[in-house]
Write a structure and sequence with these properties.
Elements: H1 4-8, E1 16-20, H2 23-26, H3 67-81, E2 85-89, H4 92-95, H5 106-121, E3 125-129, H6 137-143, H7 150-166, E4 172-174, H8 186-190, H9 201-225, E5 230-237, E6 240-242, H10 247-269, H11 274-282, H12 291-297, E7 303-308, E8 312-314, H13 318-321, H14 348-362, E9 366-370, E10 379-382, E11 385-388, H15 391-409, E12 414-420, E13 440-442, E14 454-456, H16 458-468
Parallel strand pairs: 1-2, 1-12, 2-3, 3-4, 4-5, 5-7, 6-8, 7-9, 9-12
Antiparallel strand pairs: 10-11, 13-14
Helix pairs in contact: 3-5, 7-9, 9-12, 14-15
Bound molecules: 6-O-phosphono-beta-D-glucopyranose.
6-O-phosphono-beta-D-glucopyranose (BG6) is lined by residues 22, 25, 133, 177-178, 307, 370, 374, 420, 427-430, 435.
């Protein structure tokens, strides 16, 4: 039985409300302060295009939205909305320009000191992603990224520096952004230089293993270094529904789910699940897994975080599967759902489902660290001020937050919610600026033109009210709020 009071006001007083970003998508200043080249600097089209030899001027990420120089102004705007948490990533190549350097860059470290000072000033809790799709390029070129075991050592050196320097001021850490995406985007996610089509499955799974070990090692080091620190894994959550009631479709869902859930299972349970071992065995994939690796994997995470944008269907029917070709995560479109301008199917209920699924499976606190709508915005002038009437974004976020409330009322332990791209930023998959997620509009277009001025959108004021009221202003489908 559900207590109606709980259903309507489910968000606990210590619920963390905020927004999320990644260094390569907001900072710019790609060659400032001794920063090295990252894999993002050679992906001017994001996942949509091939990589270049060197950073090229048409890569919007090189300047992005210039958070590097404007962080104080941006954080003040987040504070104005009432954020209690801000998720950002540290650019690995600002700290270790080549990844394998002996010593960290003091200039790079000092930049994040300044960002943390500013958050501290406004009482905003930092949530830091250690590696968000921005491996130093040299690690991709010299070592083939995470295929090489040596990456564990370089990552260890990096995280030790971060925990020593910031561990006393940052409570929440994420080891790898969307760690399960390496199966689908090996270069962007795992810094693996071998083209995806030529990459042997064994190398791919060895890279997965190295990342899992590195993640567990980071958790171990954090726990040893700073009492009370909280380390989470971060995965793409994408509920899959059987396309038809045919049990073969349900089984296809189970297999596809396993490919994603395996990452959380290892992080939470501290060992590979049986279905993963079977997959490796039956595909003739023999991994190099040492006893030391097995011991490290037992250092499990404190919480599970995830991104949620959409759901998909699965089917065992090869003909129907063709409809899904081109989706990064596989799957086929759901005929009952509408999609965004970029074809991402909108499914608020899926968020409640995934929260329940993860909680039932792992019994670990959950953190929704990405959710949002990428859309084209039009700047208009209202009462003499530039703004965006983004009621479509408000509707998307409102409906998803209502489902978060439902999941909390279901008994799921949710730590907080950070919308993706709380300030407009460069898209990861398409490298466009016109795919906007923010509450704050940034004046820059896909040709790199614009003043970089910031403007509050309609959603800025909406989110301010949601946070101030602890979710009481959310509109439920039944007309109540
Ligand atoms: C997640 C990534 O996959 O989705 C972010 O963690 C990314 O880096 C976000 O920006 C939205 O995707 P896109 O392609 O619209 O930027």
């Amino acid at each position: 039985m559900t207590d109606p009071t709980t259903t309507h006001r489910p968000f606990p007083a210590d619920f963390l409300w905020g927004g999320a970003t990644a260094a390569n998508q907001i900072e710019g200043a790609h060659d400032v302060g001794g920063k090295g080249v990252s894999i993002q600097d050679v992906l001017p089209r994001g996942l949509a295009g091939p990589r270049t030899q060197h950073p090229t001027p048409d890569n919007l990420k090189l300047e992005a939205v210039d958070f590097y120089h404007r962080y104080a102004e941006d954080i003040a705007l987040f504070a104005e909305m009432g954020f209690s948490v801000f998720r950002f990533s540290i650019a690995w190549s600002r700290i270790f320009p080549h990844g394998d350097d002996e010593l960290p860059s003091e200039e790079g470290l000092a930049f994040y000191d300044r960002v943390l000072d500013e958050l501290d000033k406004h009482g905003i809790e930092p949530l830091v992603t250690i590696s968000h799709y921005e491996t130093p390029l040299a690690l991709a070129e010299k070592y083939n990224g995470w295929v090489s075991r040596e990456l564990i050592g370089f990552y260890e050196r990096y995280v030790r520096v971060l925990f020593d320097r910031y561990g006393h001021r940052v409570k929440y850490w994420l080891t790898f952004n969307e760690i399960n995406s390496v199966l689908h985007a090996p270069f962007m996610s795992g810094g693996i230089a071998t083209p995806k089509e030529e990459l042997p499955r064994r190398d791919l799974f060895q890279a997965v293993h190295h990342e899992l070990v590195a993640s567990a090692l980071a958790t171990k080091i954090a726990h040893e270094t700073v009492p009370g620190i909280q380390v989470g894994c971060m995965v793409i959550a994408m509920p899959l529904y059987p396309l038809t009631p045919d049990p073969a479709d349900a089984l296809a869902v189970m297999h596809a789910d396993h490919a994603n859930l395996m990452f959380g299972d290892v992080h939470v349970r501290g060992a590979y699940p049986g279905y993963a071992l079977r997959h490796l065995r039956e595909n003739g994939i023999e991994l190099d897994i040492t006893d030391e690796d097995r011991e490290l994997l037992t250092h499990t995470v404190d919480f599970v975080s995830f991104s949620y944008y959409m759901s998909l269907c699965e089917t065992a029917d090869p003909e129907r599967r063709k409809a899904g070709e081109g989706n990064i995560m596989g799957g086929v479109p759901n005929p009952t759902l509408q999609a965004s301008e970029w074809g991402w199917q909108i499914d608020p209920t899926g968020l409640r489902i995934v929260l329940n699924q993860f909680w039932d499976r792992w019994q670990k606190p959950l953190f929704i660290v990405e959710n949002g709508l990428g859309a084209k915005d039009e700047l208009v002038v209202v009462d003499g001020r530039p703004t965006v009437r983004d009621d479509y974004r408000v509707a998307y976020l409102n409906d998803h937050l209502v489902q978060v409330g439902e999941a909390i009322a279901d008994g799921v332990h949710v730590l907080g919610y950070t919308t993706w791209g709380c300030i407009d930023l460069v898209s990861a998959s398409t490298a466009q600026l016109s795919k906007r997620y923010g509450f704050i509009y940034v004046d820059r277009d896909d040709d790199g033109e614009g003043t970089l001025a910031r403007y509050r959108k309609q959603s800025f004021h909406w989110y301010t009210d949601v946070i101030r009221s602890q979710g009481a202003t959310l509109e439920r489908g039944d007309g109540s709020s």
